């Protein structure tokens, strides 16, 4: 389908609105045909630059003059009421919004508590949670799979990992979703999360437990170069939002992709050993983190043949870059192939901000898809794919609801 007239040329402005996001894979493919970088009106209302090419994305994410420090764009950010990334404010005070040595310090401190071993130890518990959710699927053989499976599984996992009490989980799911919806007034959601986390941190300091927030409190109180109170809250906020919102939507995207390609689902059911590689292919095909967080030009610079003045806002479309990743000769990036060897993608970013939680995300996705495919063999969409509603704004991509129907549910092992 040809590009719509308002976005038909290299110099035109791409509007990242609900219609664009609903058709994102097609729209990004059209943009890549035109050029690697485009002027854009972002969901936040900011004017910026959108990088859609794989190689340019890798360059942008490691460019020494494209920083997380928003100071050069302060006036533009203030004009749209954007919450600046400062310690104790918005999504600030954590490693995703830090540069250089500050990022290294924060990441090292967080890594001391959020280790790959801690994530791997969750494997049996993740399987139990997935099995419990399948056990409770509606008896009338129809459900919204987002509400009944793809959302509650990561919420439960991250809540248990962090030590969030069950009575607070509904609120932090709602607040974390709203916090990433950059077109809305997300201040109340961010304030709610900050308040919840401040209360939890105070409780863990008095009554420490074997959970991640208690571990981070120990880092705050004891470690050399420790986390400040604002950094502690900001880090917990990052782990809540990035630790489950990304997986909620990736699971939704993955299940939808398999339902739209039933031959691929059958292949996975028959050959479950393909699942780890299939998760990489699904990350390449339709990742949940559609765009990386903003970068700001600290000086005038050239990127992809375009001159970007100091203060420019740059957004890397990770989903587009993943579809544009190098492939074998004759392979089609628009085709879902769960048997594809060594699928390359940028779903977890690139450079110093490569996702710390990638091992946990992979484990959750592999386990959840294994349980769902094995125990619900007759799963199918209850609506046409064109009727699926997508998240309309912000950096996430995922279905808002996933109506399905199914036959008999197999017993757990």
Overview of the molecule:
This is Cytochrome P450. It comes from Streptomyces liangshanensis. Belongs to the cytochrome P450 family. Keywords: Heme, Iron, Metal-binding, Monooxygenase, Oxidoreductase. This protein has one domain (5-405): Cytochrome P450 (Cytochrome p450, Orthogonal Bundle). Helix content is 47%, strand content 9%. The protein has helices at residues 18-22, 24-34, 54-61, 74-79, 100-111, 116-120, 123-135, 145-150, 152-162, 169-179, 187-206, 212-222, 229-260, 262-270, 275-285, 318-323, 358-375, and strands at residues 13-15, 37-41, 47-51, 66-67, 142-144, 295-297, 301-303, 306-308, 313-316, 380-381, 403-405. A 6-stranded mixed β-sheet has the order 1-2-3-9-6-4, with helices on one face. Strands 5-11-10 form a 3-stranded antiparallel β-sheet. Strand 7 and strand 8 form a beta hairpin. Helix 11 (187-206) packs across helix 13, helix 13 (229-260) runs parallel beside helix 17 and helix 15 (275-285) crosses helix 17 (358-375). The longest helix has 32 residues, at 229-260.
- What is the CA-atom radius of gyration, in angstroms? 21 Å
Count of spatially separate domains: 1
How many beta-strand runs? Answer: 11
Coarse structural class: alpha+beta
Structure keywords:
single chain, 413 residues, alpha+beta, Cytochrome p450, 47% helix, disordered N terminus
